[in-house]
Amino acid sequence: MKQLIAMAMVVTAFGQAQAQTQTAVVVPVAPQAAPIVTQAPQKRTVIYDERTNQLVEVSPQVKTTSEASAAAPIYILNGGAQVQEQPTMVVQDSPLNNSPAEGARKSRQDAESATEDGIVQALEKARMEDELRRRDKFNSAIAGTPTPTPTPAPAPVVVAPVAPIQEVTVVPAPVAAPQAVVEAPKAEKEEENVDIKAEIRAALAETEAKKPEEPKAEYYVGGLVGIGTYHGIGNIKSNGAAGFSVGMASPQGIVVDGSFLYGNYELEDQYQTRGYWEPYIVDMTQMNIGAAVKYQLPLGKVRPAAGPAISYTRRAYDDDGIEVKTTNSVDLGLASSLDVAVTSNFAIGVDFKYYWNMTSSSSNSYERESIIDSDSNDPEDLNYYQLGLAAKILF
């Protein structure tokens, strides 16, 4: 009998367990400030009492929420649904990679920066060497013994950096495409072999070419053709004059001029014979050896100049082919000119000189002194000027 009762109890308990089998998810609940009484689901529990040989129903114990949460987790029934395990998913973003164009641009910028730095260092080194040489010359001029020039440190060799190859991290993704490594352009690789010294020499040559040339003195030689006129005297006729000039024009505008001019004149006079006046003509040759100091205005191709002048003047009088009188004079005056530059080494212009007699001497052997030495016919006591055309070759 006991065995039958035990088997019945086992079958009953197994059936209840199968009916009440449900999947639960454990959810931890934080303890509350005040205890809350929770009624657990009612279950029928039957045990066998050997003393009385009867089945006895046991009442379930009621616990507070705080005690239940502290003692064991709470099971929330899901209505018999089974929990399925899902694979662990890791969400990872791909790293930010620069494009090939951006890498090439950065490589070019690094190469340009390195090249400019090398040029600046080489220029500073060259300037330092020039300064040391000037210092040695100065010390040698003072003490007589040259100061040894320190050996300059070798110029650093600047190598244009090569763009580093970027590492590509491949992250498994549904739509992930492999990125190809792009090499730097060939032109940027060739920049590594640039001759820095050649660039420095070219830069220095360009700097020297841009410097303005210092003005230099100009020298010239030219020819003169013109006439001479005695102011206010109508019986002295000029047959023309010719000569040459040489000189120098400084960058400051000071012109030093030397000239030689040979002229021919006719003196028309009259003398009294047999109770009446007869005309008489005497030929006169005049040589002027002069010098002038003028100031020239810097007006480009048109160059006016003016200044004081002095002349040694020699005159010779001829009567029918016989030299009858010579005079020597010193004259002071003013000289002016206006030159126009046709090319860089050729100019044409006008030359003008005006003289006053300062002193003169005469060797007179002419029989008719009253004619040549009269007050109205004595050129040595008269003011005169010379006007001529000039052509100059500059060098």
What is the 3D shape? rod-shaped
As residue ranges, the low-confidence spans are 21-38, 64-71, 77-81, 367-373
SSE sequence, one letter per element? HEEEHEHHHEEEEEEEHE
Mean pLDDT: 75
Radius of gyration: 63 Å
Main β-sheet description? 8 strands, antiparallel, barrel
Strand content: 35-45%
Number of helices: 6
Helical fraction:
10-25%
Content-based structural category: alpha+beta
Strand order of the largest sheet: 5-6-7-8-9-10-11-12
SS elements, strand count: 12
N→C terminal distance: 154 Å
Summarize the topology:
Elements lengths: L1 H18 L4 E4 L17 E5 L4 E5 L6 H7 L2 E4 L22 H44 L42 H5 L5 H15 L7 E13 L5 E14 L4 E20 L2 E21 L5 E18 L2 E22 L2 E19 L4 H4 L11 E11 L1
Antiparallel strand pairs: 1-4, 2-3, 5-6, 5-12, 6-7, 7-8, 8-9, 9-10, 10-11, 11-12
